[in-house]
Design goal:
156 residues, mainly alpha, Arc Repressor Mutant, subunit A, 2 domains, two-stranded antiparallel sheet, 2 strands, 31% helix, globular
């Protein structure tokens, strides 16, 4: 019996759990930080998924993936601050190496999952799917919330 929803056998892939994608850290990252994380995911897949913690992201490669030269340092800093990436800085003339925090490291160390600790004070957490469109207490019609497009769908 073939599983319908399984990783592809002939192509590299990477795990992105629902908890990660719904997390405050994932949702808070800007476009350049997202491109940086995607660059590291591409590098991780290119290395067969066995070199997390030894991933490199050369400046030229980041620019080729759409991060403007002025934003490279900020993108790296942001990805590290929200907990999606760990940076292992080597010093002068030594390339910085990176680790994706939701994946185990190359030496077998379990994932740090630092992204779970991030809290964005400017963004509300995601609501559960069932509670999202419930009317607020005393606000049965939802007219003052801008929910008019859902009025006909839900019979409100």
């Amino acid at each position: 019996m073939k599983l319908r929803n399984s990783p592809p056998k002939d192509a590299p892939w990477i795990w992105l759990s629902r908890d990660l994608v719904r997390s405050a850290a994932w949702r808070a990252q800007g476009i350049n930080a997202r491109r940086f994380v995607e660059c590291l995911m591409i590098e991780h897949m290119a290395k067969g998924g066995h070199h997390n913690g030894k991933l490199k992201a050369p400046y030229r490669q980041l620019c080729a993936l759409g991060i403007d030269a002025h934003y490279v340092a900020g993108a790296i800093r942001e990805a590290e601050e929200v907990g999606l990436v760990d940076c292992i800085r080597g010093g002068m003339r030594v390339a910085t190496m990176y680790a994706l925090t939701w994946l185990p490291l190359h030496d077998g160390t379990p994932a740090s999952n630092r992204w779970r600790d991030y809290r964005n004070p400017h963004r509300a957490p995601l609501l559960a799917a069932r509670a999202r469109y419930r009317p607020r207490k005393g606000k049965a019609n939802g007219a003052d919330r801008g929910c008019n497009k859902f009025r006909n769908l839900h019979g409100i």
